[in-house]
From TrEMBL:
Organism name: Streptosporangium fragile
Top-level taxonomic group: Bacteria
Matching SUPFAM superfamilies: Glutathione synthetase ATP-binding domain-like
Protein name as catalogued: ATP-grasp domain-containing protein
ATP-binding found in the keyword field: yes
PANTHER family membership: ATP-GRASP ENZYME FSQD (PTHR43585:SF2), FUMIPYRROLE BIOSYNTHESIS PROTEIN C (PTHR43585)
Keywords assigned by UniProt, alphabetized: ATP-binding, Ligase, Nucleotide-binding
């Protein structure tokens, strides 16, 4: 039998199959994949050559010790993690093995949104004014200095979870506890847990990029669709391979300055930026691949494979970044209308789906009880659809058709 000489990459956790399988599938075509997980893998086995069950995938030092044992048997060429709650722990593993991305402080400056603000401010990167607070009284004082409307934001969460726009002191008092007390499994916690930020108007975009040696190369721009005001639930995204921002000098300069300010040298990032009436405003930087299927839309629309690009950067290899096509992709997430809805059945009417629909998939099973935002946040999603077409309008129409053909029965 011929030995498998593909590089070995260590992947920390995998996430939900619906949203992350495409990454593991791609990476396994060019790399041997070893998982660090807390339970025996299931669907992942098709794509991996081995795994280690660890007690806690958020315990960086413990995983670093396990990684050294693995590397002593089989040299590890890279470490990769796309789970927000585990990217800091994964950086300890990279550090222990002397691999790219092995700088916990670099990752911590992304995970901690207040540290992000401090770092960007030091280099003069355009961003909203921001203050970290722990009480409603401190929040009211900060908002008075910043000027209403303001945005309340959890310091350590992602995916726009808990982000609320408030118009006046009364709204701030009413909403503050929700933001302060919102938690997610394995989420970061802080003694000073809330940011009060200047509201930046205009649309919001995200940028997935690779970073090597401190040089940022943007790959995909996602145009956000927000819903459930005043909450900022991300209900969909559009990715256009021809997006003008990819070649906009000012946009690319701000993106580069942002990473320089954070000292982010190697990895894959997901940066969110407001196109405000006062100019570009950096909202946050996540030290990982984007969620919500945005990198998948990038793969569909350009042919650039985000999984392979992230794996290459993790291993210190040059990624393949030449686009093969220029299309438009979209994703839309679906929710129930009422809190505490128990699902009896859920399915898409396949006969009614147009050819532009790429995927249409329920993400909850019958018997599940779900709620829309704010109670449900992103865990309130019951299904999603992705579409691929030549234009945004055609993509939107296809997603409208998918929504019309989602059949849900409640108990």
């Amino acid at each position: 039998m011929t030995a498998d000489t593909r590089p070995l990459i260590l992947v920390v956790a995998t996430g939900m199959r619906h949203y992350r399988e495409y990454l593991l599938r791609s990476i396994s075509t060019e790399y041997r994949v070893h998982l660090f997980v807390t339970a025996e893998p299931g669907w992942e086995r098709e794509y991996v050559t081995g795994w280690t069950v660890v007690d806690d995938t958020t315990d960086g030092p413990a995983m670093a010790a396990a990684a050294r044992e693995l590397a002593a048997r089989d040299p590890v060429h890279g470490v990769l993690c796309w789970d927000e709650a585990r990217i800091l722990a994964a950086s300890y593993v990279s550090e222990a093995l002397g691999l790219p991305g092995g700088d916990p402080e670099m990752v911590r400056r992304c995970r901690d949104k207040h540290r992000t603000r401090v770092a960007l401010d030091a280099l003069g990167v355009p961003q909203p004014r921001s203050a970290a607070v722990s009480t409603v009284e401190e929040a009211l004082r900060a908002a008075g200095e910043v000027g209403y409307p303001v945005v309340l934001k959890p310091r350590g969460l992602g995916g726009s979870l808990g982000v609320i726009k408030v118009e006046d002191p009364r709204e701030l008092e009413d909403r503050f506890a929700f933001v302060r007390d919102l938690t997610v499994p394995d989420g970061a916690t802080f003694d000073v847990p809330v940011l009060v930020e200047e509201f930046a108007d205009g649309p919001e975009v995200s940028v997935d990029a690779v970073v090597q040696g401190g040089v940022v190369t943007p790959l995909f721009v996602g145009r956000k669709v927000l819903g459930y005001e005043p909450y900022c639930e991300e209900v969909g995204h559009y990715v256009d391979a021809r997006d003008e921002l990819l070649d906009d000098p000012e946009f690319c300069r701000v993106l580069q300055d942002t990473h320089t300010a954070l000292g982010f040298t190697d990895g894959f990032t997901h940066t969110e930026i407001k196109l405000s009436s006062k100019g570009l405003r950096v909202i946050e930087v996540n030290g990982r691949l984007g969620g919500d299927m945005i990198p998948y839309l990038g793969l569909l629309t350009t042919g650039i494979d985000p999984g392979l690009a992230a794996a290459a950067v993790a291993c210190g290899r040059p990624p393949a970044l030449v686009p093969e096509r220029k299309l438009v992709g979209g994703v839309r997430f679906f929710y129930v209308a009422e809190d505490d809805t128990t699902i009896e059945s859920i399915e898409f009417d396949e006969a009614g789906l147009p050819p532009e629909i790429d995927r249409a998939a329920p993400v909850v099973a019958p018997g599940a009880t779900v709620s829309p935002p704010p109670k449900g946040t992103l865990w309130g999603r019951i299904a999603y659809a992705t579409a691929l077409s030549p234009t945004v309008d055609e993509c939107r129409a296809a997603l409208d058709a998918a929504e019309a053909n989602l059949k849900v029965k409640a108990v």
